[in-house]
């Protein structure tokens, strides 16, 4: 089907949003190391007094780029920093940057989003919905655009028992939701079936993309929970405590002592390097589909990228691996020896949290106060419990995923 991945990206200009995030970082590293691209423009926003360019310099000094730095020492010459922000009108681009994007970009990977599960609906709408709409509007006037891939999530329609590679109706449209927010009306009941604002706004954004079906060569990519790297650029790389690591990390350091989780529950985790390769493959498929087939005027394709369809894993195995790893290579600093009580009873877990989190935390904080230090353990415990509650539905979703309909590059894991 058409040309290879290498030929698709050769001398191409790529634009990546979310390049400083977990998936975006691995995607950027992979494209620079394995594809002979001309330029990769990355959206970076100024933060904490640091200009976008300085943030980028600091980011590219991280260890995750060591292999790339060794194999291609001049890789930074192919990176163009675009100062912008999804929260701002017109994405906060300068006139020069906007004109450059319009005249040069061939491929757009839209990875940026607010993934905070406790984000307000107003902010989640501004970033995940309005930010995407602004980028889509810009893409419609890009002179040399060959493909646009929007990164959603496999849990965008998690209230459903089955999630296929297709669009699903939602009770409210993105346009209607924005009107309600603008009028400051009560919107608490909307999205009540979704566990958080992240998955809800992602569902609305997917349907929003349908309105661009005849204007853009576009696809939607739905990965499940993204875990650490399997092999590239190095095994086991991780830079966050979202998803499954939001449970494993506090468990290892002794913060997490109990959680509402049944160990026989199935979960769905995909390695971030495999996910980046699959994302590149989806772009290849999108470009070839619109260039070499008669599907140009059909609705955008959706690609579910999940593991449970072929290689299901249960929490019992993950927890056993975690305990084995702890004893083989224990952390240098912990608050407590690794121990955790798992239960799917909400009330039992409430009681255990009080006994195993709150009371010990209060004693430790009291000792901090006596020694003139800032108490912080109870705050950490509260935040950890809140995160577990927000993660619970996604990490133990009973939805059945299908990922066999839409074709991506064969042997994509080695692309």
The overall pLDDT average reads 87
Measured as a percent range, the helix fraction is 40-55%
The gyration radius over C-alpha positions equals: 22 Å
- What's the CATH superfamily of the domain at 5-230 and 268-312 and 398-414, by name? NAD(P)-binding Rossmann-like Domain
Poorly predicted ranges: none
Please provide the count of β strands.
15
How do the strands line up in the largest sheet? 3-2-1-4-5-7-12
Overall form: globular
CATH class of the domain at 5-230 and 268-312 and 398-414: Alpha Beta
- The H/E string reads HEHEHHEHEHEEHHEEHEEEHEEHEHHE
Q: Using the coordinates shown, work out and report the CATH topology of the domain at 5-230 and 268-312 and 398-414.
A: Rossmann fold
Q: Briefly note the structural class of the backbone.
A: alpha/beta
The termini sit apart by 16 Å
């Amino acid at each position: 089907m058409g040309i290879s991945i290498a030929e698709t990206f050769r001398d191409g200009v790529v634009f990546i949003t979310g390049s400083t995030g977990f998936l975006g970082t691995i995607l950027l590293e992979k494209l620079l190391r394995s594809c002979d691209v001309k330029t990769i423009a990355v959206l970076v926003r100024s933060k904490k007094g640091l200009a976008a360019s300085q943030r980028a310099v600091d980011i590219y000094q991280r260890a995750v780029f060591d292999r790339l730095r060794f194999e291609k020492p001049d890789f930074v010459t192919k990176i163009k920093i675009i100062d912008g922000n999804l929260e701002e009108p017109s994405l906060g681009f300068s006139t020069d940057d906007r004109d450059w994007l319009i005249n040069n970009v061939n491929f757009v990977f839209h990875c940026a989003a607010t993934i905070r599960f406790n984000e307000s609906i107003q902010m989640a709408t501004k970033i995940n919905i309005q930010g995407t709409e602004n980028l889509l509007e810009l893409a419609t006037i890009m002179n040399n655009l060959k493909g646009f891939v929007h990164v959603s999530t496999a849990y965008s329609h998690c209230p459903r028992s089955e999630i296929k590679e297709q669009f699903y109706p939602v009770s409210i449209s993105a346009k209607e939701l924005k009107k309600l927010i603008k009028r400051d009306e009560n919107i608490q009941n909307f999205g009540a079936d979704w566990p958080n604002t992240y998955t809800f706004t992602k569902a609305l954004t997917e349907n929003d993309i349908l309105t661009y079906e005849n204007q853009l060569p576009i696809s939607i990519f739905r990965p499940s929970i993204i875990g650490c790297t399997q092999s590239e650029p190095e095994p086991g790389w991780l830079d966050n405590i979202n998803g499954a690591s939001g449970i494993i990390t506090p468990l290892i350091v002794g913060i997490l002592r109990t959680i509402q989780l049944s160990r026989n529950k199935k979960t769905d985790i995909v390695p971030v390097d495999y996910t980046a390769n699959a994302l590149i493959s989806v772009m290849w498929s999108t470009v070839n589909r619109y260039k070499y087939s008669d599907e140009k005027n059909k609705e955008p394709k959706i690609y579910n990228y999940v593991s449970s369809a072929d290689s299901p894993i249960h929490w019992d195995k993950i927890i056993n691996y975690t305990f084995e790893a702890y004893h083989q290579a224990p952390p240098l600093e912990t608050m407590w020896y690794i121990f955790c009580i798992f239960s799917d009873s909400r009330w039992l877990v409430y009681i255990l949290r009080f006994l195993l989190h709150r009371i010990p935390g209060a004693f430790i904080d009291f000792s901090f106060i006596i020694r003139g230090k800032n108490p912080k353990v109870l705050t950490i415990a509260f935040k950890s419990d809140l995160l577990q509650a927000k993660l619970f539905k996604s990490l133990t979703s009973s939805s059945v995923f299908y990922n066999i309909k839409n074709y991506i590059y064969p042997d994509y894991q080695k692309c």
